[in-house]
Amino acid sequence: MKKIYFILGLSAILAAGCGGQKQLVKPQEDVEVVVPCSGPEYMTSGEYFRASAMGLSTDMMMAKKKALAEARAELATAMNSTMKRVIDNYGSSYQVGEQEEAKSRFQDLARTVVSEKLSGTRTLCEKTMKSPDGKYKVYVAIELAGNEIMNAMNNRIANDDKLKVDYEYEKFKKVFDEEMENLAKEQ
What we know:
It contains 6 helices and 3 strands; from the N terminus they run H-E-H-H-E-E-H-H-H. The chain has helices spanning 2-17, 60-93, 99-117, 146-158, 161-166, 169-186; strands at 48-57, 122-130, 136-145.
């Protein structure tokens, strides 16, 4: 009986040890990753604010909501910083009178306009993928026309008694258009 156990034990060791050598995986060259809904056609231009993002979740709708929320946050950041530069440049170039108060009011209006207009974004691209582990990846790209922001800003300023006194639409629009062109060049 001891011989049988010995032979069984020895054959188990030999069977496990004779699995052969494992092949080493050779490192491969870098591989380009193609990200859906991204690239030059989805970047901010002189006419449109654009943003793209990805959402990941086990629930497809949640992945889409995450992607849209991330893209809208990116879009809001870009629009807010652009409007701040426009207001700063317009204020220093053309504004007279109480500059700091006017600049503050302009910035408050800009933030309001941006948050109102975010709901009107247009989806340029949406791709949904499911990974082997069951998770959904949703890629989105959204845009909002710069002239929509400009027009909404103009309407808000026209309704503000203090700001419309020194406000010159053509000069403000010129500064806005210049800033949109600069933004497109940065991309």
